[in-house]
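request received
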Amino acid sequence: MNIYDIAELAGVSIATVSRVVNDSPLVSDKTKARVRKVMEENNYVPNVFARGLGLGTMKTIGIVCPDVSDAYMAKAVAYLEKNFREYGYDSILQCSGREYEDMRAAVANILNKKIDALFLIGSCYCVDGGDTAAADYVREAAKQVPVFVINGSISGDNIYCALCDDRETTAQAVRELIREGRRNILFLHHSDTFSARQKRSGYLSALAEAGIPENDNLLFHAREDIESVKQDLLAQCPPEVDGIFATNDRLAVGALKFARETGIRVPEELSIIGYDDSELAICCQPELTSIDSMGETLCRTSIDSMLRLLRGRKASPITYTKGTLRRRGTTRF
Amino acid sequence: MNIYDIAELAGVSIATVSRVVNDSPLVSDKTKARVRKVMEENNYVPNVFARGLGLGTMKTIGIVCPDVSDAYMAKAVAYLEKNFREYGYDSILQCSGREYEDMRAAVANILNKKIDALFLIGSCYCVDGGDTAAADYVREAAKQVPVFVINGSISGDNIYCALCDDRETTAQAVRELIREGRRNILFLHHSDTFSARQKRSGYLSALAEAGIPENDNLLFHAREDIESVKQDLLAQCPPEVDGIFATNDRLAVGALKFARETGIRVPEELSIIGYDDSELAICCQPELTSIDSMGETLCRTSIDSMLRLLRGRKASPITYTKGTLRRRGTTRF
DNA sequence: AAACTCTGTGTAAGTGCTTACATTTCACAA
DNA sequence: TTGTGAAATGTAAGCACTTACACAGAGTTT
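response:
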């Protein structure tokens, strides 16, 4: 069942059918109704490929993230997919991992799909604050389609970033720990992404403000999964630590387990703050104080930017959102 | 830069270029090398639409699940996406929610994308054990492309299901609770999907085996999120309960929080078992005993079935996998 | 009544690829 | 030298749509 069949059944030319499909104002309402009826009766659906060939687009967005099985990204993907569907866009998903070559290949591949926009989730795509050659493949992509980076920042034409002001948000959280009387605050991180560096910078500046000297022993790198984090801390956590700022909730949970194992009381002797405010946070006992990095807000911002672009208007190349501290049981404030 | 340009630059016809792209044996190695060089020099990429038009396929699979932000589905999606990518397939994702009309629309929409196979994740697509009209839209879809149901069962031509034997797996877990001496075991569930019913059936049969009379008060329906589950239990949990079997980890965590709030000791006075063995399980204190429903194994099975079909071989219409109990701190065995 | 709009519809030329079929080329046997 | 068949390449007809341009017919204007 193709456009010719419909044209014949409706007694019009294929051009008219095409116009009806595209709801062109050039067709009279009477004809439109007739053609629509025939289309429905035969449940005709235009061939996407032919349509794509003619139009050069298929109303599809590409989403690339390092790993959808991560709760933060899964949420973002779900949000993007759901919202774009409402505007009639389909979503192609690609998980890229975090290796440079893989990310590059993922972006290159998804571009071939003639997507209308590319969404990158995560700060791993902007290896160095967005200004070294490392992110060049993203800038290259932006020559073809608008690129929206969620939770990362890359400078460049046709690139629109929405991110949580991790630096300031972290600084605020660390300031609260200091106000609690904590002096030996561990910065617990895993990867060395742009956002991790922003957080570290916020952490350091909060310490500096308070006149607390920097201490390299308090910049702690741990492995990724909860159990390993606990082990790493058991093996090497400096004894004087009385506060832990973790760059994600998983790390924070590992820290909590470490505390339990060593008998350190939380939050009496040790405060812990996580990041992302995932479901993990409320599973813990005590429940984890965590920073909501506003994933949905960032997605919403990106979507709005894209819609604005679609209407031929300008969008702001970078939008910062402040995170919000969700105070729970692992801190005293 | 299209096939004509390449043909001209390489001094061959477009047919030859096309053959080179498709690595046809009809082209001499010499010509192949020459054409390939030109393609690379101009980084030519065939147009997917034109290719799709000619071939009728674009090497794409469709994935439909109720909600990717659910950890279980996110994992499955990630696994499918990653593995199919290795075979050169792209993935289109669509979250359908759990409303009949939405699921139906989601499947219909994704079919228009000329996918090569459809993957449905979750038992919500098989409303009644797979044999009522409710799943007819899936059977309709199966007329167009092979359908693979992960963690659900639908009978029908060209439909291939991989699922955890929830009934027996649940029965085993409940038997262990009984062996622990529990007699008043709550069956804590949220939705009424096929898999939830299977679990209930396993629960009931384990009770029956042990000669424990059925008690409707012990079939407990709770809302979805952790906090609500706790509230629901606080409001209405029968006091005699000494064991809880929850149909997912989120419910189990809610149960654990309920126990803590009421001062019931776990596992001394109350045992709790969750389902899915998600990351939530190890965040808890005590850590949650949970059933690993083998999501990756199911995905692997589906992928293998699809590859077998691709090679023109037969695949088994239904594959059962037994879940595994991960014993942790919320039970005594 | 002729000239002129305007609206609605049709014609036909793309869009970039695949592939059945036709044709050329070439090695080798007769 | 010619003939033969296989291997390599080209030609052209799809594939299902969009859209610039052409044109017909109904009103309007003069």
